UniProtKB/TrEMBL annotation:
Residues 220-239 are annotated as: Disordered. Belongs to the 'phage' integrase family. Gene3D superfamilies: 1.10.150.130, Integrase, DNA-binding domain (3.30.160.390), Intergrase catalytic core (1.10.443.10). Keywords: DNA integration, DNA recombination, DNA-binding. The keyword DNA-binding applies. This is Site-specific integrase. It comes from Alkalimonas delamerensis. Residues 204-408 form the Tyr recombinase domain. Residues 106-183 form the Core-binding (CB) domain.
């Protein structure tokens, strides 16, 4: 008998052989079938030119329910345009044989990279670059020779060299994604990298600034700002003595450059570095004290609205007076968005005497202060843009009074 439900991790976990088939409730034709032995395959059923086709999307373990859902949407869209995706798949296989797409490097070059660029050109370049750097030793390997044992050896080497488990997990996920596409496109029959389980991570440890560290950071930023303005004054005196054209007087600005407003905004909104550097003035409403993180700039792929507290609002107001209100909020002289702030950030952190604190930890700092101010975790989740509460739960231990109040209800 067939059952109905949205195909996701939860429904697939409860999928039993006696159910035989699970029809998705949102995407027409998208379904999963389970064998008596418990193996699950994903399909898309469609009709084209009077013909009925059951297109295999992949197998659980090789691809996740989320990837299967994305594939179902993608293939359904092609079918709607009159494309017979089953025939297209066969044609691709034949083309692959002719092109001899057999090594990881060739697969990436001829198929995976073009596909990534078509989906998200903004992230494709860095993704492919990291994949080649992290797995350079595998580029000349046949795809079928990239086994779980091969990856376990790589992973042990990385762990022994001191690389953090979370970093290793991210790198492994990128390779698994690449190999899963090779399976879905028929380049190889299967891969066994799903046997390499991710390292368990302790997400309960959150690095945030204590009151003294925050005070030192703020003081270091103000001192840096004054130093830059004094250097500009000195440089202009030198220019004036020699009859050179003077540079703009920074004393007329609230901020000497971009670093302090970026840090203050991160501390008061919890925005990621990429979200801050891609922020445009058109996404900010100072009158209503609100800014929008657009879906194309958000890691989750979903837009979110963040209220501006007094410091965030004042920071943006002053920065607008300093730089204008068009284009990117943080930009280069030619109007292009800033790409990096690592050097200036490292300098100010060193000046403040703060150890083991990354720019991304400002996001943890924002969330931690909210939780310690008794803001509920779901509101924190919404402000951070987490897809579910699981990621936000890492901050729960910072509100011990909530747990104490709970147990006291029955005490």
């Amino acid at each position: 008998m067939a059952i109905k439900g949205k195909i996701n991790v939860t429904t697939i976990k409860s999928f039993r052989p006696e159910d035989k088939r699970l029809n998705d409730t949102e995407i027409a034709g998208f379904h999963a079938r389970i064998t008596p032995a418990g193996k699950i395959h994903y399909y898309l059923f469609y009709r084209l030119d009077g013909k009925q086709v059951n297109y295999k999307l992949g197998t659980e373990g090789q691809i996740t329910p989320a990837i299967a859902r994305d594939l179902a949407k993608e293939k359904a869209g092609e079918v709607a345009k009159g494309i017979n995706v089953q025939q297209k798949k066969k044609a691709v296989r034949e083309a692959q044989k002719k092109a001899a797409v057999s090594t990881l490097e060739k697969f990436i070059e001829l198929q995976y990279q073009p596909w990534l660029y078509a989906r998200n050109p903004k992230t494709a370049h860095s993704f492919i670059r990291d994949l080649k750097v992290n797995f350079g030793h595998l580029m000349n390997h046949q795809l079928s020779a990239i086994t779980a044992w091969e990856i376990e050896k790589w992973r042990n080497d990385k762990k022994n060299s001191g690389i953090k488990p979370a970093t290793i997990n991210r790198r492994l996920t990128s390779l698994k994604g690449c190999m899963s596409r090779a399976v879905e496109w028929g380049v190889i029959e299967s891969h066994d990298l799903n046997k390499v389980k991710a390292y368990q991570e302790d997400n309960s440890k959150v690095r945030y600034l204590n009151a003294d560290e925050e005070s030192r950071l703020r003081a270091a930023m103000r001192q840096r700002d004054q130093d830059i303005k004094q250097q500009r004054d000195s440089g202009n005196r030198f220019r004036q003595e020699r009859g050179y054209e003077l540079l703009p007087d920074l004393n007329q600005r609230h901020f000497a450059d971009h670093l302090e407003p970026i840090v203050l905004l991160a501390m008061n909104t919890g925005m990621r570095r990429g979200e801050l550097l891609s922020l445009k003035w058109s996404s900010i409403d100072l009158e209503r004290k609100n800014l929008t993180v657009l879906s194309e700039n958000a890691k989750s792929g979903k837009s979110r609205h963040i209220p501006l507290n007094t410091e965030a609002h004042n920071t943006l107001s002053h920065w607008m007076q300093d730089t204008g209100s068009t284009g990117y909020v943080f930009k280069n002289p030619d109007g292009s968005p800033l790409k990096e702030i690592r050097k200036s950030w490292a300098t100010v952190i060193e000046s403040a005497g703060i150890d083991n604190f990354r720019f991304h930890d400002l996001r943890h700092h924002f969330a931690s202060k909210l939780v310690m101010a008794r803001v509920d975790l779901n509101t924190v989740r919404e402000l951070l843009g987490h897809a579910d509460l699981a990621m936000t739960l890492r901050y729960a231990h910072l509100a011990p009074e909530h747990k104490a109040a709970a147990v006291n209800l029955i005490g």
